[in-house]
Structures are given as structure tokens and as C-alpha cells.
């Protein structure tokens, strides 16, 4: 495996991208752009062509071999276009691939056997974490084991001080001896994180050379290269995660590229990143940590595009309800919100990614979330999910636990014969049978129980939305709610009413919103570094030296992309800062001019004070501001599709009537619309159900919306 990984990292792309190859084509036939989101339950594919037409493919995810589900979803889209799978692959110039595999590997601890090398005397960083807990009064708070076990953590005799001086030289012989021990233990990856390597990386780089000589072919990660920022735990955690993912994800990406090439694909293969952009496959193989939480990071890009097309507000809440989780992200003033506080498996008790990612809050509430009765006899929903295998009971694949999807089927919201556009038949009797034991336990009818399950899931989702918005000084009522995910339409309108939201957008691509976000993605990367100083005694030279280093790294990155034919770039600079004696820092964006002349402290103070006032209700104009970590973000613009919606072909709108259960109304007659036959600008009044090929929208009684000229369902509520 080690040899295969090394070969993958050094091989050239199968086909170099020539200048303008992503923008124009001299061929007479169509050229396509494909974006993929491989989720825990479904694999979603969005295809656009040169005319701006959009097609959605969907298939069950196949964990044992990702390309099986991926190819089935692409074939489904090809059928809609009217071409073969082979033709679509051959005529695709760009494919953006996203997957939850890295995230799942971290959650399930199915990563490589990894050794962690640390400074002698500091072996417990991953055990102590940040030292906090959510509930200070909970003495026995459960925490997950350290990401790298203590017995695989090795202390290296060396020491760098905070100024970069060498307190203790690296003991080369002791290091070689430890590396020989790693060889005996069949270590598959190595993470290196020394104290203050951000000030002087010489020791880490020397250990890297020793690893290459002693453990040839074994991948390793140096903290000073991956994430050179202050704070020991985030840097060490990100380094350990990245190293542990390399064997798995490099093998996976190599297999995907091989399968794609065998299927006739000759275009450019990019991979979605947790930073809200995409990276070339070779770059991602070198830093696979950016694949963690990368799927949901694409949804905000779609949310911005759809909201702008409708001319609505630029404060946006994006929700993505999949089979397993409910993901929420926030756009403020048209800008994606980022965070270095992204945890997997629970805040403070789980594992911290430690890198700058799109700020996404996830809760265990999706279409596959399982309903159950706790020891006190109360109904609960989630966080356990039925996934795609065996899936909800109604899938007929062996699942017996009642889920949110089963509840929607029992309530009459989902037609068992028309799921996924009729490609997958559901078993309503199995859904009812799964819900019945719970209904008996709580003394309710099946319909009342199903409605309660859906309502409980909604309450969990509402709390997640309030957490990310109110904590950022945004009121949900003042924002546009963009709903995505195959299960989002089941309850998003009732959620919007509870939040007093004024506008809700449900795109026709809602069932594949993360995949559709890949259509609007650009190549993006962050370069970070730490430089501690204060406005009280501002060390301009140190800051300028760091910013120059970040700029040089950005120049190299842009130079590589220019050779691939990408020429338009944008840079943004961020700094994590805090008031003196404040425990944790807050990130703000500064004018890009700081790169060349970072000395206007009045601008820094104005921006920091303003953001602190907005988030926390106070500012300290007399307190010095300390700057900690700087982040330079480089975005390389890719051509974006200009989507057009022609509406359905000539013919009457397909409407039928069914019985559906609505809380407070019981079982009532409900209009069911075939979404593919609805003309643009059609007004829809509840109670109604809209069946799109990849999602179902439930319109409660008293709610009115329309299909806009841009192909989005818009629902507006009272002022």
C-alpha cells in the first residue's frame, strides 16, 4: 500500500488542463460539468451543460465501492439528458467529487494505524484536549478516547522555545531508534507535532527526513507545514487526523480516478474541501483532512447562488437534511462564515479538526433518524440513523426501526410508488408496522405518532438553527431560509413558521443541494501562520514578515494553477484576535491592503470592536487588542454555469388528490403536484404536496408559495 500511495502522489494528472479548457470548447457537441456528493445514504449528482440546463441523478450510496453508487447516479442523470453513461463521461470537462468517507472514518475510528511524535515531556495533548467541558457541573462527562492512543504517542528529545530558539537539539539517534520501533509495530502513518514548531520548524523538518529514510513510503504530516498556528491542541489534533487519513483517502482517491478513467472520463477531477472550495486531487491527497466535513461545505455556495438569483437578502440560513444528519450553515452579508472550532463526535468531548472550515452545525436528525422510547417512557428521535443499509423500514432492505422517512410515508406525504421519481418503490405497510409498537407505548394512533416523530425531529432542527444564528448576532426572522437535502421539504415550512422566517427558498435541486453547490465552487486554499503581538506594542516587522511568507506561499499556489489555465484570483486576509486578558480569540476580516502595509491599527480596532459589539453586546475601546493567527485565503475563479429553467413542455399540469395527515387537521384531502409539470410562476396553496424527482415538499394548510421564474419554490410569510 505504501508504494501505491507514493506512486499516486508523484504521478502526473492523466490529462493536463490547457488554457481556457474549463471555459470554452471547440467541439460541436455538448460539454458537461458534473458535481458529486456521496452521502451516508444517497449519492447525489448534478450535471450542467453549455446551455445552462441542469440534471439531477441520485442513487443509493455503496460504501463497499463508491464508484458503483456514483456511476449509477451519473447514469440516472445521463438518462434524463438522453445520452448514454459512456457519452456523458467522455464529454465531461470538469468533475467535482465530494464524499463523507473521511468524516465517517474519523467518526468510526477506521483510519490508519498512526503514531504521534511529540516533544519529550508533552505526550498527553490529545488526552487533555482544550481542558474544558460544556457543562461545568457535570463531573463525569464522557469523552472519546484520544484520536491517537497513548501507547502510540512517542516522545522525541528536542525543544524549541517560543522565540524559535533551540533549547535542546534534536536527538537524532533517539529519533532513529523510535522510528525503528514504529517499523516493528507496522505503523501506517506518522504525525509530528513539536512545541513551538510554528516559530522554528527545523526539528520537524529534520524528523520528516528521518522518516523518509527509515520508513520509506509511509506517509507523514508535519504540523508546521499543515497547520502552523498557535495553540497546541488544535495543531496537534489536525496533524494527527491528516496523517491518519492519508493511507485511506489516498487509496480511495486513486481508486476513484482509476475508475473514472476506465469509464472514459478525460476531464479535470477536483475534490470538494471543507474550506468551501475545491482542490485538485493531487493537492487533496497531500492534505486529506480538508475532505472532512467537505460535503456540507458546498451547500452554502448553492444557497448564495439561488438567493442572489431571486434578489433576496444576503443574510442566509442554509439547511441540508440528509438521511443521517441535519446540517446548518450561515451566510452573513453574502459571506460564508468560517470556524476553527469544528468538532467531530461532540464539542469538547470529541475530536477537533483544528483547521479553518465552513462553520456547519450538525445534529443527528435526518430522514433515516430512528425514533425510540427512552427509559422514562418518552419518545425520542435520533441521533442513531438507519443509513442506507438497511435503511428505513419502508425501504424493504431489512430495516425494522421506525424513522422520519417511515413517518412521512405513514402520514401520506411520500407516495410509495413515486419515491425518487418512481425508481424506488417503498413499502408503506412496513413503515406502519415499524411505528405501531411506539404508538402503542405512548397510547397514540399511528398517524399521531408519526406526526410526533416528525415534530420532534423539527424541534431538534430548530435548535440547531437558533444556535448558529443567534450566537452570531443574526435573528432567523431576518434571514432567508434555503432548504436542501432529500428530506428537507418534509418539515421545512413548519420550521420556518416556528422561527418566524419571512422567506423560504426550496430549489428544484434541493434533494442534491450539496452536489449543486459544487457547480458554483472555485478552487480555494488557506495559508495560516501565527504571530503574537499587541496594539499596545505593535511589532510591525514581525507581522509583515509573516504576511510576506503567506504571500509567497500564495504566489506559488497561483503559479501552479496558472500553468493549468486558471488565471483569475482573489485574496482575503483574516486575523484571530482578542482583547488583552480575554481567554479566546475571534476571527475578523481585514482589508487586503494589510498584506502590503499592515500598520493601520485604527482599522483593526474599528472592525474588531464592531464585531465584538454585534456578537456579544459590548466592546472595550480602551483595551489593547492582541493578534494571534493570520490566515490568507486564495480563491481561484472557475467559470460558473448560468442556469436556465424553461419550465415543463406543453401540456396540462399533473395534479391528483390524496389523503394526508396534518397536525391539528387530521387526515384531509391534499393536492399532489408533479413538480416536473408545474409551469413557472404557478401559485401553490396548502394543503399540498409537491413531488420532485429527488425531494418532496409538504405545504401545510394556510401556507402559499409559487414556483419562480428561476425554478425555485418561494414561500413568503407575513411581515
TrEMBL record:
Domain Acetophenone carboxylase-like C-terminal positions:
568-706
Q: List the InterPro entries hit by this protein, alphabetically.
A: ACX-like_C, ATPase_NBD, Hydant_A_N, Hydantoinase_A, Oxoprolinase-like
Q: Which domain of life is it from?
A: Bacteria
A Gene Ontology BP annotation from the UniProt entry: glutathione metabolic process
The entry lists its GO molecular-function terms as: 5-oxoprolinase (ATP-hydrolyzing) activity
What Pfam families is this protein classified in? Hydant_A_C, Hydant_A_N, Hydantoinase_A
Q: Which GO terms describe its cellular component?
A: cytosol
**Hydantoinase/oxoprolinase N-terminal domain location:** 33-213
Hydantoinase A/oxoprolinase domain: residues covered: 235-525
Cross-referenced PANTHER family: 5-OXOPROLINASE RELATED (PTHR11365), HYPOTHETICAL 5-OXOPROLINASE (EUROFUNG)-RELATED (PTHR11365:SF23)
Q: What is this protein called?
A: Hydantoinase/oxoprolinase family protein
Its source organism is Pseudomonas fluorescens
Amino acid at each position: 500500500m505504501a508504494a501505491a500511495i507514493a506512486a499516486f502522489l508523484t504521478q502526473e494528472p492523466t490529462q493536463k488542463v490547457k488554457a481556457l479548457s474549463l471555459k470554452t470548447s471547440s467541439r460541436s457537441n455538448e460539454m458537461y460539468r458534473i458535481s458529486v456528493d456521496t452521502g451516508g445514504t444517497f449519492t447525489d449528482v448534478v450535471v450542467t451543460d453549455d446551455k445552462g440546463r441542469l440534471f439531477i441523478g441520485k442513487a443509493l450510496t455503496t460504501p463497499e465501492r463508491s464508484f458503483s453508487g456514483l456511476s449509477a447516479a451519473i447514469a440516472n442523470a445521463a438518462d434524463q439528458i438522453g445520452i448514454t453513461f459512456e457519452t456523458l463521461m467522455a464529454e465531461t470537462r470538469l468533475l467535482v467529487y465530494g464524499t463523507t468517507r473521511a468524516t465517517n472514518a474519523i467518526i468510526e475510528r477506521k483510519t490508519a494505524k498512526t503514531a504521534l511524535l511529540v516533544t519529550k515531556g508533552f505526550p498527553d495533548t490529545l488526552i487533555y484536549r482544550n481542558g474544558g467541558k460544556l457543562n461545568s457541573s457535570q463531573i463525569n462527562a464522557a469523552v472519546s478516547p484520544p484520536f491517537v492512543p497513548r501507547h502510540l504517542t512517542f516522545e522525541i528529545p528536542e525543544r524549541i522555545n517560543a522565540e524559535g530558539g533551540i533549547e535542546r537539539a534534536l536527538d537524532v539517534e533517539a529519533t532513529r531508534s523510535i522510528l525503528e520501533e514504529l517499523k516493528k509495530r507496522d505503523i501506517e502513518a506518522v504525525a509530528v507535532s513539536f512545541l513551538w514548531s510554528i516559530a522554528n520548524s527545523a526539528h520537524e523538518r529534520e524528523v520528516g527526513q528521518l522518516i523518509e529514510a527509515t520508513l520509506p513510503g509511509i506517509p507523514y504530516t508535519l504540523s508546521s507545514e499543515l497547520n502552523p498556528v498557535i495553540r497546541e491542541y488544535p495543531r496537534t489534533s489536525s496533524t494527527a487526523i491528516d496523517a491518519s487519513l492519508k493511507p485511506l483517502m489516498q487509496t480511495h482517491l486513486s481508486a476513484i480516478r482509476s475508475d473514472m478513467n476506465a469509464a472514459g472520463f478525460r476531464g479535470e477531477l477536483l475534490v470538494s474541501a471543507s474550506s468551501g472550495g475545491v482542490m485538485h486531487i493531487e493537492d487533496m491527497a497531500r492534505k486529506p483532512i480538508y475532505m472532512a466535513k467537505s460535503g456540507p461545505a458546498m451547500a452554502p455556495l448553492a444557497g448564495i447562488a439561488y438567493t442572489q438569483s431571486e434578489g433576496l437578502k444576503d443574510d442566509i440560513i442554509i439547511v441540508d437534511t440528509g438521511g443521517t444528519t441535519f446540517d446548518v450553515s450561515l451566510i452573513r452579508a453574502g459571506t460564508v462564515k468560517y470556524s476553527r472550532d469544528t468538532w467531530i463526535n461532540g464539542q469538547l468531548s470529541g475530536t477537533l479538526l483544528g483547521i479553518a472550515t465552513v462553520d456547519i452545525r450538525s445534529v443527528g436528525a435526518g430522514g433515516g433518524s430512528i425514533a425510540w422510547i427512552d427509559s422514562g417512557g418518552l419518545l425520542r428521535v435520533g441521533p442513531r440513523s438507519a443509513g442506507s443499509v438497511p435503511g428505513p423500514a419502508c425501504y424493504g432492505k431489512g430495516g425494522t426501526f421506525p424513522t422520519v422517512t417511515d413517518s412521512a410515508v405513514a402520514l401520506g406525504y411520500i407516495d410509495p410508488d413515486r419515491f425518487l421519481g418512481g425508481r424506488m418503490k417503498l413499502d408503506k405497510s412496513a413503515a406502519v408496522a415499524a411505528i405501531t409498537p411506539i404508538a402503542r407505548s405512548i397510547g397514540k394512533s399511528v398517524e399521531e405518532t408519526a406526526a410526533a416523530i416528525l415534530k420532534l425531529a423539527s424541534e431538534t432542527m430548530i435548535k440547531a438553527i437558533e444556535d448558529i444564528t443567534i450566537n452570531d448576532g443574526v435573528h432567523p426572522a431576518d434571514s432567508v431560509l434555503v432548504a436542501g437535502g432529500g428530506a428537507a421539504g418534509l418539515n421545512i415550512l413548519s420550521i420556518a413558521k416556528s422561527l418566524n422566517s419571512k422567506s423560504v427558498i426550496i430549489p428544484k435541486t434541493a434533494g442534491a443541494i450539496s452536489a449543486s453547490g459544487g457547480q458554483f465552487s472555485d478552487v480555494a486554499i488557506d495559508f495560516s501562520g501565527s504571530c503574537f503581538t499587541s496594539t499596545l506594542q505593535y511589532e510591525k516587522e514581525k507581522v509583515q514578515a509573516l504576511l510576506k511568507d503567506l504571500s509567497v506561499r500564495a504566489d506559488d499556489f497561483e503559479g501552479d494553477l496558472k500553468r493549468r489555465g486558471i488565471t483569475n484570483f482573489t485574496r482575503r486576509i483574516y486575523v484571530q484576535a482578542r482583547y488583552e486578558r480575554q481567554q479566546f480569540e475571534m476571527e475578523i476580516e481585514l482589508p487586503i491592503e494589510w498584506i502590503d502595509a499592515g500598520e493601520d491599527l485604527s482599522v483593526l480596532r474599528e472592525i474588531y470592536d464592531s464585531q465584538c459589539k454585534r456578537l456579544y453586546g459590548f466592546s472595550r475601546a480602551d483595551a489593547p487588542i492582541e493578534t494571534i493567527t493570520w490566515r490568507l485565503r486564495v480563491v481561484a475563479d472557475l467559470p460558473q454555469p448560468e442556469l436556465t429553467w424553461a419550465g415543463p413542455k406543453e401540456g396540462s399540469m399533473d395534479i391528483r388528490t390524496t389523503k394526508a395527515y396534518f397536525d391539528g387537521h387530521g387526515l384531509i384531502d391534499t393536492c399532489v403536484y408533479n413538480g416536473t409539470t408545474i409551469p413557472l410562476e404557478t401559485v401553490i396553496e396548502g394543503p399540498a404536496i409537491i413531488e420532485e424527482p429527488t425531494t418532496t415538499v409538504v405545504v401545510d394548510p394556510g401556507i402559499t408559495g409559487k414556483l419562480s421564474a428561476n425554478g425555485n419554490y418561494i414561500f413568503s410569510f407575513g411581515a
